[in-house]
Amino acid sequence: MNGTRVVAVVAIVLGALALVYGGFSYTKESTAAKLGPIELKVEEKKNVNVPVWAGLAGVVVGALVLVGAGRK
Question: How many domains does the chain have?
């Protein structure tokens, strides 16, 4: 499988995952206060929403690239 097909398959998979899950979350750790040797750390959960149009675009563009790569 050449590089173009790999990129197309990755775009299709990422687009499908974006459509299924709708986004992802991660935890960000930061230091709230530091008093000498004592540090107060805060963990903050962040959510990132992926728009439906971005997932659809990933699937469509990946499919078009995959079909185009197959015709060569």
Answer: 1
Instruction: Please write the tens of the pLDDT for every residue from 58-72.
Output: 999 999 998 987 776
Report if pTM > 0.90: no
Distance between CA atoms of 5 and 13, rounded to whole angstroms?
12
At 7-41, the pLDDT tens digits run: 999 999 999 999 999 888 999 999 888 888 898 99
Residue-range definition of the domain harbouring residue 24: 3-70
CA distance 59 to 20: 12
Length of the chain: 72
Q: How far apart are CA 17 and CA 14, in angstroms?
A: 5
Chain mean position to CA 31: 27
